[in-house]
Structures are given as C-alpha cells and as structure tokens.
C-alpha cells in the first residue's frame, strides 16, 4: 500500500490536532511533521532530512502566511504537492492560493470523507477544487465581465431591456444606429451571449440595469 507523508501547517494547535485525529485511521496517510506558520514550514522543507509528499496548509497565519509560503516554494524551484485548507471562501484568497501554486483548495468545514479523498488525490499530484469554491470563482469571473461594460454600453443595455429598438435607441442617445449596433456587438461579447433576448435575460438575472 502506497503511503503519503504529510506536513500540516496551521497556527492553531487545536486544528493541527483535529486533522491528525481525522487522518489517524487512514493508513495511507502519515503525518510526518507539523508547523505553526509558513516560516517554520519552509525551514522544514529546506532541511534535507525532510521529504514530504504533501503540504497541507492554512492561508492566514502569523510570521509567514500560506500565500507567501507557496510563493517562496515557487521562487526556490521547490516542487511539492500543496493543498490549502482554509475557512476563507473569499474569491480573492482562493485565486491567490491557486496562482501561488496550490494544487488544491478545500474549506475546513468539508466532510471528513471529502477531506481525506482530497488529501490523497492531491498527494498523488491531482488538482482538486471544491465545487462550492468553483462556484465562487465563476461568480467572480461573471462579475468581472459585467464590470467591463462601459457607461454607454450599460445605457444601451438598459434601453433594450425596456424594449427599445436600435433606431429608437440611436435617436434617444444622439448616436447613429450603426454605433448602437457596435455597442450591442460589444455587449454580446462581454456577456457571452448571442442575441438581444439573451442579453436582456442576462441583464435581468445579473441585475446590471434598473428597469
């Protein structure tokens, strides 16, 4: 049976103890060592006597946080499977962890079975992102797309939601009908839709305009 050596990095002793209890019945998981912050973890990684298959770490820690630790590994060219286990469901934190090199991200309130499976998959080199966190990142991407609409595009979008035709919008805004169509084309692209009806539905669902 293949076994995986794990380094647990969390500033709360009770969390480290809790994780050890969760994994103690899983024979393929060996808790090799633990650290209370990124600086301690980095020292353990750099020590030639330590060989870890997976580093399980939190984001928010004193001295050196999880993101900085991951960046330190990347800067030093150290390749170790890393999994972030956090209470933060903030899209910026999740994205920062992934960009810094984390293979997997999981919330601390995940079920025991899901946590063990994610640890084992990540230790084997797989990347796992909890479905709830996937939805959070998708929502952020949609919000970023929405925020790319210019004031004039939002004005055009608001008018098509109210049922105005292109010619009517042109007269109302004091622009040419060709310009209205150009705005519509840009709106479709940014909202990832293919028609006026889809743009209207998207605007209503995402509450992009008042109507």
Automatic annotation (TrEMBL):
Presence of the UniProt keyword Nucleus in the record: no
Pfam families: GerE (PF00196), Response_reg (PF00072)
Residue(s) carrying 4-aspartylphosphate: 58
UniProt keyword list: DNA-binding, Phosphoprotein, Transcription, Transcription regulation
Entries under InterPro entries matching the protein: CheY-like_superfamily (IPR011006), NreC/VraR/RcsB-like_REC (IPR058245), Sig_transdc_resp-reg_C-effctor (IPR016032), Sig_transdc_resp-reg_receiver (IPR001789), Tscrpt_reg_LuxR_C (IPR000792), WalR-like (IPR039420)
The keyword Hydrolase is annotated on this UniProt entry: no
The HTH luxR-type domain, residue ranges: 142-207
Residue intervals of the Response regulatory domain: 5-123
UniProt function note: May play the central regulatory role in sporulation. It may be an element of the effector pathway responsible for the activation of sporulation genes in response to nutritional stress. Spo0A may act in concert with spo0H (a sigma factor) to control the expression of some genes that are critical to the sporulation process.
Name of the molecule in the record: Stage 0 sporulation protein A homolog
Annotated organism of origin: Anaerobium acetethylicum
């Amino acid at each position: 049976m293949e076994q995986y050596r794990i380094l647990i990095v969390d500033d709360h002793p009770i969390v480290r103890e809790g994780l050890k209890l969760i994994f103690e019945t899983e024979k393929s998981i060996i808790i090799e060592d633990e650290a209370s912050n990124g600086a301690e973890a980095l020292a353990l990684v750099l020590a030639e006597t330590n060989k870890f298959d997976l580093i399980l770490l939190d984001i928010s820690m004193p001295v050196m946080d999880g993101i900085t630790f991951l960046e330190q590994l990347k800067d030093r060219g150290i390749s170790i499977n890393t999994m972030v286990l956090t209470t933060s469901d903030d899209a910026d934190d999740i994205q920062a962890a992934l960009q810094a090199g984390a293979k997997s991200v999981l919330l601390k309130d995940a079920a025991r079975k899901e946590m063990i499976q994610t640890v084992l998959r990540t230790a084997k080199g797989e990347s796992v992102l909890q479905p709830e966190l996937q939805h959070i990142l998708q929502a952020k991407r949609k919000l970023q797309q929405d925020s790319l609409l210019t004031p004039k595009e939002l004005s055009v979008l608001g008018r098509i939601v109210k049922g105005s035709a292109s010619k009517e919008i042109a007269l109302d805004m004091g622009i040419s009908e060709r310009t209205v169509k150009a705005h519509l084309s840009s709106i479709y692209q940014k909202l990832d839709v293919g028609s006026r009806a889809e743009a209207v539905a998207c605007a209503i669902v995402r509450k992009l305009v008042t109507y």
